[in-house]
Amino acid sequence: MQLIFVLTALAAFKVAAALPSSVKESNDLVAREGLMGSMLCVGYHSSGLCQFLKISTAGYCIKLDNSLAGAVSSMDPFDGGWCTFYMSEDCTDNTGCGHYDASSPISDLTTVSPTNPNTKCEGNMDKKIRSFTCNPL
Description:
The chain is α+β, with helices and mostly antiparallel strands. The protein has a single domain, classed as Crystallins (Gamma-B Crystallin, domain 1, Sandwich). Helix content is 15%, strand content 31%. The protein is globular and about 35 Å long. Keywords: Signal. Residues 1-18 form the signal peptide.
């Protein structure tokens, strides 16, 4: 009887621990197993500090931590998915600059423009990403 109670309690804990919130900090996701995500690097051509951010549920917003927010210069979305990268911290276009969708590596973010590249946005995505979401292809 006590063994059944212990196993039930462990199963409930495992389910509760697996339930994600709608916005995750990147530190919460670095070691998490998942199917989608992206490698983000502060240097061009996947150099400097790089972090592999994984998610297992499509569409969840990943807010970058202080080591990456506003510092990313190259990225590589995982195979089998596409990611939308935002200049805001909450995966919205509330900055007036738009976003950028990618399903393949971008080695230099100065070469790509957000959906609304105006003078306020300085025309490219380099060192501007603060959050992203991913979905399967």
